[in-house]
């Protein structure tokens, strides 16, 4: 073997060793890296506490917090598990949590030149992604820790997709968040009611519609979520016979105008 061929073989050996080290390092990236990224992206309002495993396969405790510097935090029971891989031209994140997720929903992230697509796919056979205790929201701080809600939140999203193009996100498809048998410590009523918040995506932005399904506290409203931000207008009223029990809560929900409480965001 000539000196040139020996040198070439050594260079290839070093290149192979370096590539192996890089791939090995990527394969063993700790789950804490993912937890730190989620915390930064959400302003520390969503935390993956006690993260274990790797970025590609791990678990953590899902926590909602009031944000950077906040002392309020509420964790879900059990652990949220994930596996991240590549399938059919997209990164695919599979999630599992016994308390709250139905089956194994998937989050598919498809990269592209100048645009990205994020699609949420519920487990096969049901449009329901999962359900969570309403008390979890109190971890976000004001006003949720004042309301101290009880009940259940259920998310259904049969074909929800987010598209990023030219620096703007656009939602396609529908998502429905149901608040079932909601209660609050600010009212003596055992149950305030059940409600539906529907999000409908379109070219002009996302349309929001709030409606009451049942209950003494009646909520309604409409709004839009687009590049200009979130704008929502609604109102809260009490059913006949429940006004005294709901008076304090109506004062907190929005600006009082007679028997109505006006809700304005944006």
Which characteristics define this entry?
266 residues, alpha+beta, nine-stranded antiparallel sheet, 4 helices, 18 strands, globular
Give a structural overview.
The chain has helices spanning 3-27, 31-41, 144-147, 243-253; strands spanning 46-53, 57-65, 73-75, 80-87, 90-96, 106-111, 115-121, 128-133, 149-156, 160-165, 168-172, 174-184, 193-202, 205-215, 217-226, 229-238, 255-257, 260-265. By secondary structure, it is an alpha+beta fold. Strands 1, 2, 3, 4, 5, 6, 7, 10 and 11 form a nine-stranded antiparallel beta sheet that branches. A nine-stranded antiparallel beta sheet has the order 8-9-12-13-14-15-16-18-17. A hairpin with a 3-residue loop joins strand 6 and strand 7 (115-121). The longest helix is centred in the first third of the chain and has 25 residues, at 3-27. The relative contact order is 0.07. It is found in: Cell inner membrane.
